[in-house]
Amino acid sequence: PEHYPECQQQTRLAAAAELCRSGKIAADVGCDHAQLACRLAMDKSALVIASDVCDGPLEAARRTVSECGVTNVRIVKSDGLAEIDFVDDVIICGMGGELIAQIISSCRFLSTDTRFILQPMTRAEFLRRWLYNNGFELLEERIAYDGERGYTVMLAAYTGVSQEIDGLFSLTGKITDCNFLRKIAEKLSKNADGMEKSHRSAEHAKVLREMSRKILDRASNCELS
Known about the structure:
Layout: H1 11-19, E1 25-29, H2 35-43, E2 47-52, H3 55-68, E3 73-77, E4 89-96, H4 97-105, E5 115-122, H5 124-133, E6 136-146, E7 149-158, H6 167-172, H7 178-197, H8 202-224
Parallel strand pairs: 1-2, 1-4, 2-3, 4-5
Antiparallel strand pairs: 5-7, 6-7
Helix pairs in contact: 4-5, 7-8
C-alpha cells in the first residue's frame, strides 16, 4: 500500500499489534483513526472491525482505510462491543482501566479462545484485579515507550476461573521491564512520603514502602535474568 498507518511509529499501538494472532478476526474497539486496524489488516488479520461510538473518529477511520487501500477493514459504529457479534482478538487501547473492564464485561461471545489485547492509560492495577476476579488471566505484558513515558500492553485470556490477586501483582502483573518496575516503586515511595508529611496513615505508608522494596527487588532480578 502507498500509505502505511502511523501506528508503525506509535510504540504502544505497535506492541498491541504484535500481540494479535495471524489469520484471526480482530476488533479495534475505540479505533480513533483506525491506524492500528489498518496495520493489522495489512500484516496479520483476516478481517478487522474498526469500531467507535462517535461519528468523528469513524469518518477519520474511513479516510485512513481509503488511504491505506485495504479491503479487509469493516467500520462499525458501536458502544464498546455492543454491535460486534464475534471476533477472535479484541483490542482496546488508550482508555482508562475501569472503562476497559466495563467494555469487556459486556462481551457476548466470550470463550477460552478469545484473546484481549489491552492498553490502559490509567488504573492498570484496577484492570488486573478485575480481570482475575472475573475469570481472566494475563498471559503476557509488554512495556512500550513513547519518549519517556511507558505504557503497559496486556494480553489476557478467559479461563472462567475467578481468582484473587495480591496488591503486588495488581501493581506489577507480568511486567519484566526493570526500568518500568523502578518507576512503579518510585511512585509508591513518593506516595508514602506524601502520607507521612501530611500526617496521614503511617501504617499505610509503611505498607507502600515495603511494596516499593519488593518491586525494586523484582527489578534487580529482572536485570540479572
